[in-house]
Amino acid sequence: MKKIIAFAAIAAASVSLASAQDFKSGFFLDNYLYGYNINPALQADKYTGAYFGLGVSSLETSLNSNVGIDNFLFPKDGKLYLGLNKNISAEEFLGGLKKDNRAGVGVGYNIFSFGLRGAEGKSFVNVALNVRSQNGLSIPKGFFEFLKSGGEDNTYVIEDLNIKTKNYVELAVNYSRKIGIVTVGATVKGLGGIAYADVNIDRMALNIKDDVVRVSSKGSFNAALPYGKIKSDSEGYIDFSDIEKGSAGVAGYGAAVDLGVKVNLLPNLAVSAAVCDLGAVTWKKDQGGVMDSSYEFNWDDDDDAGDNIEEMFKFKSVQYDKSEFEMLDTRINLGARYSFLFAPDLSVGALCTLRMGDKLSKNSDIRVGVTYTPGRIFSISGNYGLSSYGNAFGAAMNLRLLGINLFAGIDGIATKYTPQMIPVSSPDIVFKGGLSIVIGSKKANRD
């Protein structure tokens, strides 16, 4: 049945996409080279004089959603049923869904990175070239109510169904300096757009009566895709599966800054605060479409159900050539670290992150962690907290030997997976790892 297939595709998407996040576990590591991404005032440890990374220095992926596989698949009588199956009641299926079922995926890849401590030992400079991709999906509960209805006479309203992708290159230059007990830092970023697309269904009303579905919809589509041209069919409707190769170009330009401060209140206690990604990109949107139509079909025609659902989401191509200003997802990070006087290798900390943006990306996270660093070679940490997506477990390690610095970590460790390694419950996962060449600091005896 095409209706079931269409639903399965949407459900699969909703647990495999998420908006970009931050590698928060790195805050708790003592010899983490990329702490300036969390707070530009956080310098590399005192044993680092310089470092260099190319190609493999850092890779970050994120996955988060406020729903999971267990919201769509239900074990019953020794079998596994999709939520639309008649053996699963509407109350059981719809009761676990949110008003807005959000999900997304993010990727951050470091092409090049370099860091250097100043000759006086109190300042540090970082330079990095990164590629970032942020993708989000939001499906309102009303859409699933319509699919589950099975053609029952009723009116369903779907509002703010949204899919968005933002992709850009980032050149970042960071400088930090210690002044007494205070360290201040700033990062300046130049941004070059690669691709942008935003599909939004503002409102779709579906009235079902006597197996006839009457649809009235309004929505919009716009994109900045210099490397591809989305074609239209003979009636002028956008065909998202037919993309023609475009010419080389830039999808947009932008800039951002990170500002941060760290204060050593005591020799073994430091607090920090930062505002990151305070900036915007101006996207040169060159493709667009509108949805403003009425349509009706017979619900009991199973052979055409999938085609009818596809028909409901058609956009009429329109001329689109304008630049639009869009703010980045600004983050606020507040942190504290405390090392024990009786066990200086052991420390505890706390980090609170607030991400501001649209409904696909905004969230909050607060966690506490413990770190063990027996020397300059090895550091390991674990943390736990709460986020907008539920409980958050994290862990990270850093190993430095013979000038090679290797780190890896994960935020949001899931405890239950499918055989395909998809988290069963709503995921909030960030993985980051990398390798760099490190040159020791002659000022290692300095703080």
> Tally of extended strands?
22
Approximately how much helix is present in the residues? under 10%
Ranges where pLDDT stays below 50 over 5 or more residues in a row are 1-20
Number of helices: 4
Structural class: mainly beta
What does this structure look like?
- With 447 residues, the chain is mostly beta strands.
- It has a single domain (2-440), classed as Porin (Beta Barrel), CATH 2.40.160.
- It contains 4 helices and 22 strands.
- Strands 1-4-5-6-7-11-12-16-17-18-19-20-21-22 form a 14-stranded antiparallel barrel. A two-stranded antiparallel ribbon has the order 2-3. A two-stranded antiparallel ribbon has the order 9-10.
- α1 (2-14) packs across α4 (302-312).
- The longest helix is centred in the first third of the chain and has 13 residues, at 2-14.
- The protein is globular and about 80 Å long.
- The relative contact order is 0.19.
- Residues 1-20 have low confidence and may be disordered.
Short description:
This protein is mainly beta and 447 residues long. It has helices at 2-14, 90-95, 141-149, 302-312, and strands at residues 48-65, 73-76, 79-82, 100-117, 123-140, 154-179, 182-209, 212-224, 228-232, 238-245, 252-266, 269-285, 287-298, 316-318, 322-327, 331-340, 343-355, 363-372, 378-387, 390-401, 404-411, 428-440. Helix content is 9%, strand content 61%.
